[in-house]
Amino acid sequence: MTAVDVILEGRELRKEFDVAAGKLHAVDGVTFQIQRGRTLGVVGESGCGKSTLGQLLLGLTGVSGGRILFKGEDVTHAKGVRRRALRREMQMIFQDPMSSLDPRLCAMELIAEPLQIYKVCPSRAALEERVRGLMELVGISERMMYAYPHELDGGRRQRIGIARALALEPDFIVCDEPVSALDVSIQAQVLNLLKQLQRDRGLTYLFITHDLSVVKHISDDILVMYMGQMVEKAPSKTLFRAPMHPYTKGLLSAIPIPSLHGRRDRIIMEGEITSPVNPKPGCRFAARCPYAQERCRREQPDLRELEPGHFVGCHYAPELSGGG
Ligand code: SF4
Known about the structure:
The chain has 324 residues and is an alpha/beta fold. It is built from twelve helices and twelve strands. The protein is 33% helix and 23% strand.
């Protein structure tokens, strides 16, 4: 893989927050690369650190450790003019368009906003033309131009969010649970739109979700997070075919199979979720893992490449991969 292929890289990324009880380890040693034009899905339950990871990459919050490389440049601590320039190249699509869009602005004003902030269009006519083009691109009819967010359905609101993210022609977009707030029937439309835009524009996505069934259709590779740590990473097909980490297996077993004959044994992850504040030594999943052994409570497992491109953070993953 050449340096040019890799558009974004995180190396041993860490983010800690000071809380009353100590240090909350929101992101703890996450390493990955994303190639241009591809999608890395980041999956995990609420509170696993996946949204914080997205914010770190965009510089919305500072890192506690590690490095971020964008197109080969170390942008970990970029500030001022460089950070402003990076904001054009790296954008975000938010989960809930109803709360991320200013309710006082109509569709036209919402989409025009980033263009105005960066003074991209030389005239009002050019601005309107650009907004019309973006609306067409994301499939919003021109007659919606002056509609306010509360007058639109969730799918159209999210299309406005996507148009705003695309306005400055970025290379990389963090999609933070972009379809979670939408009806199932609309989710597929928005996912298809994101895929189409990626094909047409060579976009690179980091796609954050708690729902593995959503990420399956859009991701080339998947990174599974548990309590701030990366527990498994693999090409999407491999992860669905042969997951190795007990936590990933548990997540996958919860996905319903849309077939009369399909059946999957649900793995119930019982036990208490340990705290990400001052985490104890050992595997963070041990309290919920059906395979936990004494060693798991003592020693934190390293992330090991068990097959080419398939990384797993579990002491016993190779033996467990056949069962469960
Ligand atoms: Fe389970 Fe132990 Fe593997 Fe952790 S290291 S996932 S507790 S078997």
